[in-house]
Specification:
The protein has 433 residues and is an alpha/beta fold. It folds into three domains: 2-20 and 233-361, Nitrogenase molybdenum iron protein domain (Rossmann fold), CATH 3.40.50.1980; 26-101 and 119-226, Nitrogenase molybdenum iron protein domain (Rossmann fold), CATH 3.40.50.1980; 393-432, Single alpha-helices involved in coiled-coils or other helix-helix interfaces (Up-down Bundle). The chain has 16 helices and 14 strands. The strands form three sheets. The protein has a six-stranded parallel β-sheet, sandwiched between helices. A five-stranded parallel β-sheet has the order 6-5-4-7-8, sandwiched between helices. The chain has a three-stranded antiparallel β-sheet with strand order 2-3-14. Strand 4 (123-127), helix 6 and strand 5 form a beta-alpha-beta unit. The protein binds nicotinamide-adenine-dinucleotide (NAD), L-histidinol and zinc ion. L-histidinol is lined by residues 135, 137-138, 234, 256, 323, 357, 364. Its EC number is 1.1.1.23.
Length: 433
């Protein structure tokens, strides 16, 4: 990893240092994805099969898995993996079940009742990445909240060949339909529907740059579908001081670097000594990894930033807005109030990001590309819509009438005013009797 001195960089160099690699070829990706999305919308299954053959090298078989295929995949999943999936399931379900909000009902003034209710989003589509690794954990992160929210139809897709454990986890979570398709074409199919694929109202899930761009495009089209967030190539930023264990820091950086060559990992530390030790550790540990080449590629666009102190480390992290932020300092919780804009924060030496990726209970679907400045980690609320209800008594209307008619006058909206005065006339004539 390239070691850079923050103090020596000008504003442009600082911006460049914090730029994600996946963003550099975005114009090309936008145009490729736009063509894919338009063709799926207008040609349906025919285009879906064509792109599946082109990008995933599969040209036959059903897009939707049959009951027999699902049963066979579940039988092939090993008992050890089933037990691990169940353990993770329990923690993720516990954390998301606790996010249920009770409806709100109160009188803002006498006779004016205002209520806030929650309703599940009807049809949801889940995208489980499978291009370079079959992310079974993502099934749990996307499908458990969908089921807790009681979405009526939950469909899931993942690129071919879809792994047995993805099918097993989807079944465990009560997913209604499973499709073997991936990339931008899968997102477009779930957004618009095709002859074989059910249309959905909202699409969830992470993916590579093509998947994320497709989500963005379908969400901008009123005929398409809403989306959860831009959840693209994985990122982690580690803030560490000279008390940190360099081997732990290197292991955490590599755990995200191995996701893909477009992953980005960043170390921010006031200690040059630690940065050098981490660098040596990275080399040592890379030799033991099965995905060393992918991780090495990701490290090429990654940085160790030497800053003045932990205060500045927090400021750099806030500017970068990482998907994951790991804090390995003498007093990690003391930094929490200074930290903004991270998708998920991991405090202390004993909290590797891997636990959140798989099984602690928090959701691993998180905003990337700096969207953590405004977007949140995936939660139950994303699978629900809020709506309000109000009911006024005659006395309640009396108490609001002058305010509403005065404001309607100010806006020049006489029909609005009349909807109140016509009722006030009725109330007044009833009372006169
Ligand atoms: N942000 C999060 O919450 C989060 C969570 C999990 C994973 N991730 C990220 O998700 C990503 C998963 O990526 P992946 O590639 O392994 O799987 P993927 O399923 O997202 O993408 C694979 C698909 O990309 C399409 N594709 C491949 N090359 C293409 C090309 N040249 N043109 C058009 N389409 C092409 C193919 O159709 C293929 O099915 C990783 O970057 C990982 O870091 C993010
Ligand atoms: N780190 C990924 C989110 O960026 C999630 C994941 C799944 N499996 C392992 N990790
Ligand atoms: Zn991960």
């Amino acid at each position: 990893m390239q070691i850079v001195q923050w103090a020596n960089l000008n504003a442009e160099q600082r911006r460049e240092t914090l730029t994600r690699p996946a963003m550099s070829n975005s114009a090309e990706i936008t145009s490729i994805v736009s063509n894919i999305v338009n063709r799926i919308r207008t040609e349906g299954d025919r285009a879906l099969r064509e792109f599946t053959a082109k990008f995933d090298k599969v040209s036959d078989g059903d897009l939707r898995l049959s009951d027999a295929t699902i049963k066979a995949a579940c039988e092939r999943t090993t008992p050890e993996l089933k037990a691990a999936i169940q353990h993770a399931y329990n923690n993720v379900a516990t954390f998301h079940q606790a996010q249920k909000s009770a409806p709100l009902s109160l009188d803002t003034q006498a006779g004016v009742r205002c209520e806030l209710h929650y309703q599940p989003i009807n049809r949801v589509g889940l995208y489980v990445p499978g291009g370079s690794a079959p992310l079974v954990s993502t099934v749990l992160m996307l499908a458990i909240p969908a089921k807790i929210a009681e979405c009526r139809k939950v469909i899931l897709c993942s690129p071919p060949p879809i792994a047995d454990e993805i099918i097993y986890a989807a079944t465990l979570c009560g997913v209604n339909e499973i499709y073997t398709m991936g990339g931008a074409q899968a997102i477009a199919a779930m957004a618009y529907g095709t002859e074989s694929v059910s249309k959905t109202d909202k699409i969830f899930g992470p993916g590579n740059a093509w998947v994320t761009e497709a989500k963005r495009q379908v969400s901008m089209d009123f005929r398409g579908a809403a989306i959860d967030m831009p959840a693209g190539p994985s990122e982690v930023l580690v803030i560490a001081d000279d008390t940190a264990n360099a081997a732990f820091v290197a292991a955490d950086l590599l755990s995200q670097a191995e996701h893909g060559p477009d992953s980005q990992v960043v170390l921010v530390t006031p200690s040059v000594e630690l940065a050098n030790k981490v660098d040596a550790e990275l080399e040592k540990q890379l030799a033991e990894l099965s995905r060393a080449e992918i991780a090495r590629k990701a490290l090429e666009s990654s940085r160790s930033i030497i800053c003045a102190d932990l205060e500045e480390a927090c400021a750099i992290s806030n500017e970068y807005a990482p998907e994951h932020l790991i804090v390995q300092t003498a007093e990690p919780r003391a930094l929490l109030s200074k930290l903004e804009n991270a998708g998920s924060i991991f405090l202390g030496n004993w909290t590797p990001e891997s636990v959140g990726d798989y099984a602690s209970g928090t959701n691993h679907t998180l905003p990337t590309y700096g969207y953590a400045k405004t977007a949140s980690s995936l939660g139950l609320a994303d699978y629900q819509r809020r709506y309000t209800v109000q009911e006024l008594s005659a006395d309640g209307l009396k108490g609001l009438a002058t305010t509403v008619t005065t404001m309607a006058d100010a806006e020049g909206l006489t029909a609005h005013k009349r909807a109140v005065t016509i009722r006030m006339d009725s109330i007044n004539s009833q009372e006169a009797k």
